Amino acid sequence: MAIENKKLVTSKAVLHDKFGRKLNSLRISITQKCNLKCFYCHREGEVASDNEMTKEEIAQIAKIAYQLGMKKVKLTGGEPLLREDLPDIISEIAEYSDEVSLTTNGVLLEKNVETLSDAGLKRVNVSLPSLVPERFKNITKKDFVEQVKDGIEAAVQNNLCPVKINMVMLKGINVDEIPNAIDFAQEVGAILQLIEFEPIQPENYAYWKTFHYDPALIEYWLKKRAVSIQENALHKRKRYILKKNSDPVIVEVVKPMHNSIFCQNCTRLRVTSDGKLKPCLLRNDNLVNIIALIRQGASSNELEEAFKEAARLREPYWRGENGKCS
Ligand code: SAM
Question: Which atom in ligand 1 lies closest to the alpha carbon of residue 105?
Fold first, then answer.
């Protein structure tokens, strides 16, 4: 069924922005609601809104995106598993997407993993800011660390692979846990993704500096322990392969801040939970209101124009040799 329908959706020329960057993936926030209250959360750079898109609207946006070359979709939030229609959203999108993946806090993952996999979900990233129950509670305000760990294991068992554990590095909060997080990733068969802390509001740098941990420090540590290091040709993102008792584990380091290479190679367009095309996590002054067009009954051509407008508005946030802000 999915394969049949895919054939009906014809692809047009892949969208590029004026910096020559291809747009080939869509990151859709499907809710702002969350069952955790992580103090460090950037909330996908969204402004508060309770005007959630319906599953039909989400599917319509994903379909137009697919026609324009955005063949991979990642669902995010808030917490996407709080939407009861998540399996329907996934199965709709899977009809005309090469890969539907999800980023989740993992709390509700174990009991939903089979349904999501049956719906067409291919991969998950699971946030895990700490393995220590007391700390996890301080960071997220909830006592759910065991549920998250079980969710990660269930995702691996159900082959939503590679399962990536997302750990945002927070100075003075969790960086001392990185060796334990590596061990845990190895035990369960997941990849550990260490993510540089990004500002919650781009202008609030004082707060950011308090918790920002320089990824160069952990890269130095990883380099000394790695049996091999791979570099993604496009994004220049390093993957460190470590071994313990001869079993390998992969650790990736994601460094978005002041990183012009990161922006140069960004191929992602975002959609906010209230239906705006969002060219950059760190900006809200260049959104394109596609949901208004959908609700006015706009044609496919008009919706494609909205995507083209978002592509025109797309600019690297960090650029120049020293990664200055644009
Ligand atoms: N609730 C879901 C989750 O926890 O994955 C989806 C929303 S969360 C905003 C999406 C991703 O953003 C997670 O991988 C999380 O670790 C990451 N994230 C949240 N705040 C961040 C920040 N300030 N800097 C870098 N990454 C962040």
Answer: 4
